[in-house]
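User: I'm curious whether this sequence folds into something compact or stays loose and floppy. Could you predict its structure so I can see for myself?
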Amino acid sequence: MVIKKFAKIFFISLILLILFFIIYFKYFEFKEVKIIKNENEDISHNSNILKDIEYKTKDKDNNEYLIKALEGEIDFSNPNILFLTNVKATITLNTSEIVTIISDYGKYNSENNDTIFSKNVIVNYLDNKITAEYIDFSLEKNLMLISRDVVYSNPENTLSADVVEINIKTRDTKIFMYEKEKKVNIKSNK
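Assistant: Here's the prediction. I'll summarize afterward.
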């Protein structure tokens, strides 16, 4: 008799437990929730966006590097990286010659001063002008790698290429195309 009573309680508890799980999973489904950030919210009090940014440094050869941006956003995964908007960089070489670089966007590494410039990039150096869509500039490597729709012009010539690679220290320049069957296009302005 005790066993029959125990069996009844066990089966009733089992039925209630199964009923509970059926109701729980039917009416309380797990749904993925997406958080949409309102772009118009005022987030200036708790934000990683900086305004009117300016970094200035000198390398071991006494070349001075100044980068300014209207706005920058710190990368949460690496706080040494800043994503910049409306960028202007000025490189004053130890020979007092000045190189200016202007772009819509940039990515600046405050640890090693390497900078990537992108979108509507313009480089001015003496009477030379280079327009492109991308520049990878490294002070550590003394290298400026200019690519994507590169047009190099001066009073005498206009040149179109895929890549212009400039050693900042030696001023050695390599101009080339990615595909061997394509040629660098040079036009005389005279």
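Summary: The helical segments are 2-27. Residues 49-188 form a domain with the lipopolysaccharide transport protein A fold fold (CATH 2.60.450.10).
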